[in-house]
Automatic annotation (TrEMBL):
The lineage of its organism: Bacteria, Bacillati, Bacillota, Clostridia, Lachnospirales. It catalyses: cob(II)yrinate + 2 L-glutamine + 2 ATP + 2 H2O = cob(II)yrinate a,c diamide + 2 L-glutamate + 2 ADP + 2 phosphate + 2 H(+). This is Cobyrinate a,c-diamide synthase. Coiled coil: none annotated. Residues 11-199 form the CobQ/CobB/MinD/ParA nucleotide binding domain. Its EC number is 6.3.5.11. GO terms for molecular function: ATP binding; cobyrinic acid a,c-diamide synthase activity. Pathway: Cofactor biosynthesis; adenosylcobalamin biosynthesis; cob(II)yrinate a,c-diamide from sirohydrochlorin (anaerobic route): step 10/10. The record marks 443 as: Increases nucleophilicity of active site Cys. Keywords: ATP-binding, Cobalamin biosynthesis, Glutamine amidotransferase, Ligase, Magnesium, Nucleotide-binding. Comprises of two domains. The C-terminal domain contains the binding site for glutamine and catalyzes the hydrolysis of this substrate to glutamate and ammonia. The N-terminal domain is anticipated to bind ATP and cobyrinate and catalyzes the ultimate synthesis of the diamide product. The ammonia produced via the glutaminase domain is probably translocated to the adjacent domain via a molecular tunnel, where it reacts with an activated intermediate. The active site is at residue 343. Catalyzes the ATP-dependent amidation of the two carboxylate groups at positions a and c of cobyrinate, using either L-glutamine or ammonia as the nitrogen source.
């Protein structure tokens, strides 16, 4: 990294899901922001929603840290690029500290990410219903780890009176057992700052009533009961990241085309990886946001379309009622507009979608089939897509990585690829390719096969050069 500015790194991990990591991270980010620090934020794993909360605090995109999507060297480069110019980067862990891609090992876990990226860790321990048992829990977490990344402990859901009695006991035990780990304070339960959840995790930031007030409450509490100076000191002890001369995705000496890619971004479609959009920008694309909910038609002069995941089932009625947009998308795709559609975007291309109210609503109808509620988590977790034949953006013999997480399914999910779980013990057919549209439930990491993104951009460029960009089909 050419920047000489020292950037501190701190990873907030937890003993499990629901232990309060997001609330603590948001409180820390807001508190440090009020102190005038330049900040960056990250989320371990493929989650989309927690980064949206980070963004609401900072006003800048949060990035995913993922060792299934990215080789260690690339992940270091991506983190270096993301944190360039920041005083501090705060990362939020995923699930429990040692939970990874399978039950058999911690591979892909927060602990592995912390080790690879040399990020000091503050472990969040939820204390509800516990007293002295916290010591036994800590003993397991600290002595199971071999990399020594855990440097601090934050107690969550505990009163000030209890903390005053428990803290000296914990500190004495840490000293007597030779652990170079410090208590960094506590966060009590704050009913007015609670962040509620849904089946994919937290509800979206836009749905949280008085979100900014909640964030300010968390920041105020962090200033009062967390040791912000200690956490900052620990973060600044992180060694410099060793990266290559050229950062990920950067190619010199190549003139890029100037293309406009429309990207659905509203309450219904909001799940994007920052790295995916950044790669498209590096390939010469301008990302043009639009709303399938609120806009009448697709933006003018576009060369490609991305329909991301999100919660279209919550807005099925509204999406259906926006007939002009549905027709604009349908006619543009029929006219040859290249498109990538994932999960919720895939459902939007279907003929019908069952809303949360149980009613069926018409969608664009470009792809056959209907989306419906299952009430259970279907195909879940990391996967590798293997094309069963030569495809437009993915060639035979290649692979690209992604993940699925959805409670809605579809009567026709496609059969152009095979989705294979990381352990190779389970696979299923998926993905549709129709004309220049590649769509399915899988959320894809472009960085796991940059040629995929380059072919998509190439298809958009070819269409522009043929004079088809900006057609007013359906407008």
């Amino acid at each position: 990294m050419s920047d000489t500015k020292k950037t501190g790194r701190l990873l907030i991990a937890g003993t499990g899901s629901g232990c309060g990591k997001t609330s603590i991270v948001c409180g820390l980010l807001r508190a440090y922001q009020k102190r005038g620090l330049a900040l960056a934020a990250c989320k371990c794993g493929p989650d989309y929603i927690d980064p949206l909360f980070h963004e609401k605090v900072l006003g800048i995109p949060s990035e995913n840290l993922d060792l299934f999507f990215h080789e260690p060297g690339m992940q270091k480069q991506l983190l270096a690029r993301h944190s360039r110019g920041a005083d501090l980067v705060v990362a939020e862990g995923v699930m429990g500290y040692y939970d990874g891609m399978s039950l058999e090992s911690p591979k892909g876990s927060t602990s592995e990410i912390a080790s690879v990226l040399q990020m000091p860790v503050a472990l969040v321990v939820p204390c509800r219903g516990m007293g002295h048992s916290v010591l036994a829990l800590l003993k397991g977490y600290l002595e199971y780890e071999t990399a020594g990344q855990i440097r601090a402990v934050i107690l969550n859901g505990i009163t000030g009176r209890t903390y005053e009695k428990l803290a000296p006991v914990l500190e004495q035990w840490l000293r007597e057992n030779g652990h170079a780990v410090r208590l960094a304070g506590y966060l009590p339960k704050i009913a007015d700052a609670e962040l509620k959840s849904r089946h994919l995790g937290l509800i979206l930031p836009e749905e949280v009533e008085a979100l900014q007030e909640k964030l300010d409450l968390l920041a105020g509490q962090a200033e009062e009961t967390l040791d912000l100076e200690l956490l900052l000191q620990i973060a600044e002890e992180a060694p410099d990241l060793e990266t290559g001369e050229q950062e990920a995705g950067e190619e010199e000496g190549t003139e890029k085309p100037k293309l406009r890619i429309a990207a659905a971004k509203d309450e219904a479609f909001c799940f994007y990886y920052k790295d995916n959009l950044e790669l498209l920008r590096q390939l010469g694309c301008e990302i043009v946001p639009f709303s399938p909910l609120h806009d009448a038609v697709l933006p003018d002069g576009i060369d490609g379309l991305i329909l991301a995941g999100g919660y279209p089932e919550l807005y099925a009625k509204e999406l259906s009622e926006n007939v002009s947009m549905r027709e604009s998308v349908l006619q543009s795709l029929k006219g040859g507009l290249p498109c990538l559609a994932e999960c919720g975007g895939f459902l939007y291309l279907k003929e019908e979608l069952e809303g949360e109210d149980g009613m069926m609503y018409p969608m664009t109808g470009f792809l056959k089939g209907r989306g419906y509620r299952t009430h259970t988590l279907g195909r879940f977790g990391y996967l590798t897509l293997e094309p069963k034949e030569e495809l437009l953006f993915l060639k035979r013999g290649e692979t690209i990585r992604g993940h699925e997480f959805h409670y809605w399914d579809c009567t026709e999910n496609g059969d152009r690829c095979l989705a294979v779980k990381p352990d190779g013990q389970r696979s299923w057919e998926c993905m549709e390719e129709k004309q220049q549209v590649f769509a399915g439930f899988a959320h894809i990491s472009y960085d796991s096969n940059p040629a995929f993104a380059k072919r998509f951009v190439g298809c958009c460029l070819e269409r522009r050069e043929k004079g088809n960009a900006g057609d007013d089909m359906g407008k």
